[in-house]
Design goal:
By secondary structure, the protein is an alpha+beta fold. It contains three helices and seven strands; from the N terminus they run αβαββββββα.
């Protein structure tokens, strides 16, 4: 009888652990991309340092916002197909050539993420160049277990990484070509 109770307790504990693991929702994903630009840091910051201007990012057709670079400033990015992304500035450090923002509203069909925050930073690179780093943390677009493929962790990481890489390449081209 004692053995049966002990076995039941062990099995129950194992099921509880497995159940907790199965019940665990999504984990925070992180993406970090960087690029070197053949220009001084100040020139790069002059292009990206204004939170209200995201014209350097391909696919953004317009940016509207309020409060400039103040903490709590907002902007709405309008994308080519008419989709919008609303963002809020929560950290602005011009002396460090860095700012951080979060997405406050986006359709997960546009960018398959939730609870997204990001930081852009310009730092020195060899030979007078600048290094731009874009780092973000977020959850996938589907908050529950068993997400559809287009809202999975993999889809979210792929979308954000692709956005960062394309954005940084476009920024490099814009600055180095002088346009």
């Amino acid at each position: 009888m004692r053995r049966t109770i002990a076995k039941a307790a062990v099995v129950g504990a194992a099921l509880a652990v497995l159940g907790a693991a199965w019940a665990h929702g999504p984990t925070r994903q992180k993406v970090r991309e960087s690029i070197e630009i053949d220009a001084p840091q100040a020139k790069v910051w002059a292009v990206i340092g204004n939170f209200q201007d995201m014209s350097w990012l391909a696919g953004v057709t317009s940016t509207e916002g309020q409060k400039g670079n103040e903490i709590g400033a907002t902007r709405r990015l309008t994308l080519g197909p008419g989709a919008t992304v609303d963002e809020e500035l929560y950290k602005y450090e011009p002396d460090m050539l860095s700012y951080s923002y979060r997405i406050t509203a986006v359709d997960v069909r546009v960018l398959p993420v939730t609870n997204y925050s990001s930081t852009l930073t310009v730092s020195p690179a060899p030979d007078g160049k600048a290094k731009v780093e874009w780092a973000g943390a977020f959850y996938r677009g589907f908050p529950n277990n068993d997400p559809p493929p287009e809202l999975s962790d993999e889809a979210a990481v792929k979308a954000v990484s692709g956005l960062y890489k394309a954005g940084l390449q476009g920024l490099k081209k814009k600055i180095e070509s002088g346009s």
